[in-house]
Structure prediction request, 72 residues.
Amino acid sequence: MDVKKKRTFRKFSYRGIDLDKLLDLSSEQLMDLVNARPRRRFQRGLKRKPMGLIKKLRQAKKDAPAMEKPAV
Prediction:
C-alpha cells in the first residue's frame, strides 16, 4: 500500500498573469508590467548573458511536459 502521491506545484503568476501568458508576451508588453529598474534595464538593452538565460528558460518551459517541472 505504498502509493506515492503525485507532487503538485504551485501555479506561478506575476501581477495576475499566468506563466504561460507571460512567456508569450513581447519585450514591450513585459516592460509595461515591471517596475522602473527592470524597464530601464530593458531600454538600455540586454547583454548576451541575460538574453541567453531568457532564451534558455523559454525553451526549457516549452519542452517540459504538462504539469512537470522544467529541467534548468
In short: The first strand starts at residue 13 and ends at 14.
